[in-house]
Amino acid sequence: MSQRQVNRQTSKLGEYLVGITQSTSQATMANLQRIAKLQQRKRLESEKAIQIGMQSQEAFINKYSKQLTSTNEEFNIALTNQLRETGKELGLAKQKAFAPGATQKERDNYTSLLVNSNKNMEGLAVLATNIENGKNNYASHGSAVQQNVALGRITKDGLESMDIPFYQSMNLSTAKDISINTKKNGNWEIAYDGGNFDVSAYNAGFSQKGQTSNDFVIKEEDLLMGYHDVGSFSAKPKADKNGVLEFKRWKHFNNEGHTGGGLAIPI
Which of 74, 75, 125, 203 is the most buried (most CB within 10 A)? Predict the structure, then answer.
């Protein structure tokens, strides 16, 4: 083989290798571009999921913030913390549920958390509102008990159906170490130095009866001690429509003109 032939074959081999290299480079570049587009789309979807989660957190907090207030500073702090933490947890769960590659478990977890969070927060809001609206009732009850009077007391039914020590401690700001915890069944309870108060149980009872402390306070119009009625037992018997006066119409009348009275006292 002459040198010219060798050079020609070498040149063809070089051209072939260059062609393979160019093809490989083009394929690699195409793959890199496709990967870059996928990464960009995933990043945009992740950013969108984060935004959705933050919007959900903000909407949840705004929904309940005005309802969760208390003049009891420590209770108010506990309410605020619970709202913030619940909103944050809900926002993160929604972020995961809407993120790229989210599993069905993550989506189901968000739905379940959303339902429970709203149920518990609505119950807490009702409780906080009723405590605040009835804050004077428990002070009035304590004062009435000390003075041994009925006016201003909470009735026996009210005392049996409501946790008076809890309400008084919240209204009088004597409760300490207040926190709101989640029980094993997912319901919330308020823990304080005097014990525990089941928020979900309270809300269930309120939903059925709709009664607050205002419904059990003894007011002035409730203080009817008795009813006295005085009347005469003597009167003229009246004839029937035919003008006939029968014996049965006058036999029970008092012909001596005496009067009498009755006294009824509720027990």
Answer: 75
